[in-house]
Write a structure and sequence with these properties.
Blueprint lengths: L10 H6 L6 E4 L1 H6 L1 H16 L4 E2 L10 H5 L3 H17 L4 E4 L2 H10 L8 E4 H10 L15 E3 L13 H10 L34 H10 L5 E4 L2 H13 L7 E4 H8 L3
Parallel strand pairs: 1-2, 1-3, 3-4, 5-6, 6-7
């Protein structure tokens, strides 16, 4: 299938022309470098363009927030990276930020203010849920043909920021067959990648966390596992491969499901 080419506005280009977008779309490391998650970035960018939202990305000026460094215990590196990002935001007078990665969302919203970086930080699920509620984003309720979907709560959206209802509101608009895992919302199990575990070898134990969480999803008999985090997507996709279920069950981000629904 031919991929539709989209033009993404870059902050520096807009500022040269004397323009200032309402939102900075923070792409994140996974969205910039991971081939699978680049598809999620494209899907959400298409949604923003479809909604005629005033936004821009930093492009090559975007660097890591420093979140993985802090989680791994390197506080000095975290503060160096964070202060560099804050200075970039200052140069462009950034006020509002939309993120797709819960890790970026959490650190920008809750930890940057301690270093002087205070912004209105919005997770993309909050943004899309609001657009649906206001009638600006219209979803075809028959788009998934009532296919069963289960949702995995990312730790940094759920327990850290209590974003539980927005993803479920969206998924119920997409399908009448949302099936919850027995561990969900505040009781949901981590995918196994949080706290910088993504970047280290597994410790000794009987079972890896991502396998345990994949088994939770498989027990629902859902055909789609909906995720909202690049870490969760990687771990659950690996879990489906480990269980030899990748041909039967697919893991899609909620932005991808919406983009499919409105044929973007």
């Amino acid at each position: 299938m031919e991929t539709r080419k989209i033009e993404i506005p870059v902050m520096a280009d807009l500022f040269v022309r004397g323009e200032k977008p309402e939102y900075l779309f923070w792409v994140g490391c996974a969205g910039a470098f991971d081939d699978r998650y680049k598809k999620v970035v494209r899907a959400f960018a298409k949604i923003l363009i479809h909604l005629n939202v005033s936004f821009a990305v930093l492009g090559k000026e975007e660097t890591c927030t420093g979140d993985p460094a802090r989680r791994a215990g390197n506080e000095m590196l975290f503060q160096m990276q964070a202060l560099q990002v804050i200075e970039t935001f200052r140069l462009y007078d950034v006020k509002k930020i939309i993120t797709i990665c819960p890790h970026c969302f959490n650190v920008l919203k809750n930890e940057y203010p301690d270093l002087g970086g205070k912004y209105e930080v919005i997770n993309y699920l909050q943004f899309m849920s609001r657009m649906i509620e206001e009638g600006k984003l219209k979803i075809d309720p028959a788009s998934l043909n009532n296919i069963s979907v289960t949702y995995h709560d990312p730790c940094y959206l759920g327990r850290s920021n209590e974003i539980y209802e927005e993803p479920r509101i969206i998924l119920k608009k997409l399908t009448g067959n949302l099936v919850e895992m027995h561990r969900n919302k505040s009781f949901a199990l981590c995918c196994g990648a949080g706290g910088a575990q993504m970047f280290k070898e597994a410790e000794k134990g009987d079972k890896e966390v991502f396998i345990e969480r994949t088994e939770d999803a498989l027990k629902t008999d859902a055909k789609i596992i909906a995720t909202a985090c690049p870490f969760c997507m990687t771990m659950l996709t690996d879990g489906l491969k480990y269980k030899n279920k990748e041909q039967e069950i697919i893991n899609l981000d909620i932005a991808e499901l919406i983009a499919q629904s409105i044929d973007l």
